[in-house]
Amino acid sequence: MTENVGIKGIKAPKGGCSDRNCPFHGTLSVRGRIFKGVVTSAKMEKSVKVSFERIIQISKFERFEKRSTKLTAHNPPCIGAKEGDNVVIMECRPISKTKKFVVLKVME
To answer: Which of 57, 58, 76, 99 has the most other CB atoms within 10 Å of its CB?
Structure first.
């Protein structure tokens, strides 16, 4: 079992799993961007939809606006994120057509 994934402050969950696409107990490597968001849907098997907001500047009107993004992320059984949880997701290799992120941690 790996202690961490190479990300500062993220440690392996206490429970184990046999998922090969788990960054802690499997062979999936993570790299790239990190996002914090809220799980909006957990109806899929081993997948969740994560939504997060960002602020965009509109230079023409000298204003800012909020935009939201929904991403599909792999949810390993050892993490088990549910709807309404605040999670940290990180980029990985493409797991399927739409899944290019994996859940690393459920925040309290």
So the answer is: 76
